[in-house]
Write a structure and sequence with these properties.
The complex is a heterodimer of chains A (375) and B (252). Chain A is an alpha/beta fold and 375 residues long. Chain A folds into two domains: 104 residues, Transcription Regulator spoIIAA; 247 residues, no CATH class. In chain A, a hairpin with a 2-residue loop joins strand 1 and strand 2. In chain A, helix 4 crosses helix 9, helix 6 packs antiparallel against helix 7 and helix 7 packs antiparallel against helix 9. Chain A starts with 7 loop residues before the first strand and ends with a helix. By secondary structure, chain B is of the alpha/beta class. Helix content of chain B is 37%, strand content 25%. The longest helix of chain B has 18 residues. Chain B is globular and about 55 Å long. Chain B starts with a strand and ends in an 11-residue tail after the last helix. The chains are: A alpha/beta (375), B alpha/beta (252). Chains A and B meet through helix 1, helix 2, helix 3 and helix 12 of A and helix 3, helix 4 and helix 6 of B.
Chain lengths: 375, 252
């Protein structure tokens, strides 16, 4: 008996239809109640009487569905009357009736088409890049301001950030570059052994690690580790209105928050690159001794002879540029966070993606530019 | 009267600090009860213990006849569908629109089809006095008062028997706060809701509360109708109820 009868009994008294509501009209039974209402005969401009004498329970959702159905089949206040309801249910129905305005159109979040999404994303990216350059200007001005009043530079904060960005990252950077050194030397060695050119592995590993791999790996690790942390920190501070509080105290958020982080990362990344150079070469030495019959002393001798100083300097000199980009992007994205939790996550993701892309773009620019300068 | 919430000798310790020292009280069905007390007396902690979020160090809490801290996860989840909770700042899900926020309990806990949920969400919005077009906004776009109303609509979605409100009027302007109070009272009377409010708001207390429970120094120091609690002989209670005294014209 899934039909209407379980929930509604329909009788005719004179010219009126009497609907006896039955059972527990609760949210849990709403699906069945809704079906029962739909199976009722259409109104045909008759009068309806709602009888609540057989009703056990009633809640607002069920009351709303009942009224919605009655309105839907063309009933008005004058053609529906109620009787026999428990006073509590009568009160509830009155509240439902009072609050029931026209039901809104189903509100959903908008779903855009492919072209619209591409367009919106492009516009957003354009706006972001434009405001990035404005931010760079602000930071430069604030940094110049610091030059005039060096007492305002936050040395303590900078050192604390340096520890978090640089010193704490040494183990992970050393591990990653060491392993890449091992892999790189091994792959080179497999090729070189065929021609009996084992010793040239040293040239390859030294040059690749110092000039390209170590700066790139250290920058990617710092972007993922510290860039994400900066954005999340500043973003959360923004959400908690701490950044507004800093401004209200007459301090500049850029001087207090951005410049220490920028300085820390610009100093820390070259240090990490140096650590990476050493660890990567050590990885190469391990493979040399183990697989290629190049002893440690021979390895170092060869390295000393073939690795130009310029390769090492170029590698270390790229690091502050990478670092500055990472710090600027991370701080900028942190300050852009809106006042909700989702926005912190989105900005953090965006920081890591932007930082890594920029590091690789810059690296490519360096490679081409230095090549044309014959360096 | 049927007891829907019973706290029996609840003890809460954080480290060596005793927050609640054998706190006991009951709430009957249909009552509107306020828990008051100075900041730091553990009102919100007690509330979270009652709804199964923080485990008390000792004592029992029975909610709708179920011992909250000795029930299985399934029993607790079944219980959670029978009460609604309004968190202090609304705790709306910021990644969802207002309408989606209210739809969450329907989607997760009922098997209603979408074409029934959408109008129900609209009705819940209207029930708490919001215009239908609020549904498409995101929580970040709402004012404090609107956030609380949306949170109330979400708390009321599954037709709860008990409504827990944590400082519902904090951060609202007096007009908004009184309107919110009136809304809670209308809902509790029409729906037969039991309402348990943690509040600091003296006006809430004087306008819509049936009974007040006063927590101080880890104990319940007064429990009864507001008019009786006002007369209690305790320095904190006297200070609390006279906090507004200079603003009220003196009866000469």
């Amino acid at each position: 008996m899934d039909s209407a009868a379980g929930w509604i009994e329909h009788e005719t008294e004179g010219d009126a239809s009497v609907l006896y509501l039955r059972g527990a009209w609760r949210l849990a039974n709403l699906g069945a109640i809704s079906r029962a209402l739909k199976s009722l005969p259409p109104a045909e401009h008759k009068r309806f009487v709602l009888d609540g004498s057989r009703l056990k329970e009633l809640d607002t959702s069920a009351g709303f569905i009942l009224y919605r159905h009655l309105v839907g089949i063309g009933c008005t206040e004058s053609t529906v009357s109620a009787r026999g309801f428990d006073p509590r249910h009568r009160k509830l129905l009155r509240l439902v009736h009072e609050r029931m305005t026209c039901p809104p159109s189903a509100a959903r979040s908008m779903h855009l088409g492919l072209v619209q999404r591409v367009g919106a994303a492009a516009l957003k990216l354009g706006r972001l890049l434009r405001t990035h350059s404005a931010f760079v200007g602000v930071v430069v001005l604030e940094a110049l301001g610091l030059l005039r009043r060096p007492g305002r530079f936050r040395a303590k904060e900078t050192v604390a950030q340096f520890e978090a960005v640089g010193l704490d990252a040494i183990p992970i950077v050393a591990l990653v570059t060491f392993l890449i050194g091992v892999v790189f030397a091994y792959l080179l060695g497999v090729q070189a052994q065929r021609y009996g050119a084992n010793i040239f592995v040293v040239d390859g590993v030294g040059l690749a690690m110092c000039r390209e791999l170590s700066p790139l790996l250290a920058a990617v690790i710092v972007a993922g580790r510290s860039g994400a942390a900066f954005t999340a920190q500043l973003g959360t501070m923004k959400v908690q209105e701490e950044i507004d509080a800093i401004s209200t105290l007459g301090l500049s958020p850029v001087q207090v928050l951005v410049i220490p982080r920028l300085a820390a990362i610009v100093v820390a990344l070259p240090v990490l690159v140096f650590v990476g150079d050493v660890a990567g070469v050590a990885g190469g030495m391990l493979v040399g001794a183990w697989q290629l019959d190049i002893g440690a002393a021979a390895f170092l001798d060869r390295l000393h002879a073939v690795l130009p100083m310029s390769a090492f300097v170029i590698g270390v000199a790229k690091a502050p540029v990478f670092g500055a980009f990472i710090a600027m992007i991370a701080c900028r994205m942190g300050l852009l966070v809106a006042r909700d939790a989702r926005s912190v996550g989105e900005s953090t993701t965006s920081t890591v993606v932007q930082s890594i892309v920029w590091v690789i773009v810059l690296d490519a620019i360096f490679a081409v530019a230095l090549q044309s300068l014959d360096l | 009267m049927e007891r829907v919430l019973e706290a029996d000798s609840v003890v809460t310790r954080f480290g060596t600090e005793v927050i609640h020292d054998r706190v006991s009280f009951t709430v009957g069905r249909g009552e509107v009860v306020a828990l008051i007390g100075a900041s730091g007396t553990g009102k919100s902690v007690l509330l979270k213990e009652a709804i199964g979020l923080i485990r008390p160090s000792g004592g029992t809490i029975r909610l709708l006849g179920t011992d909250v801290w000795r029930s299985s996860a399934d029993e607790l989840n079944a219980l959670r569908r029978r009460f609604g909770m309004l968190f202090q700042d609304g705790a709306l899900f910021s990644s969802l629109t207002v309408a989606e926020n209210i739809a969450v309990p329907f989607r997760e806990n009922t098997d209603l089809p979408m074409d029934l949920i959408a109008p129900l969400v609209g009705f819940k919005l209207a029930l708490v006095g919001l215009a239908p077009d609020a549904g498409s906004k995101t929580p970040a776009e709402l004012s404090g008062g609107m956030r609380k109303r949306v949170a109330l609509a979400r708390a009321l979605a599954l037709e709860p028997e008990i409504l827990f409100l944590d400082e519902p009027t904090s951060g609202l302007d007096p007009v908004g706060a009184r309107a919110f109070d009136a809304l809670v009272r209308v809902l509790s009377e029409s729906l037969g809701l039991t309402v348990f409010i943690v509040t600091h708001d003296l006006d809430t207390l004087l306008s819509i509360i049936d009974r007040a429970i006063v927590l101080s120094r880890g104990k319940v120091i007064a429990d009864g109708p507001v008019s009786a609690v006002m007369q209690a002989d305790d320095p904190w209670i006297r200070d609390y109820f006279s906090a507004r005294a200079p603003l009220v014209p003196e009866a000469s």
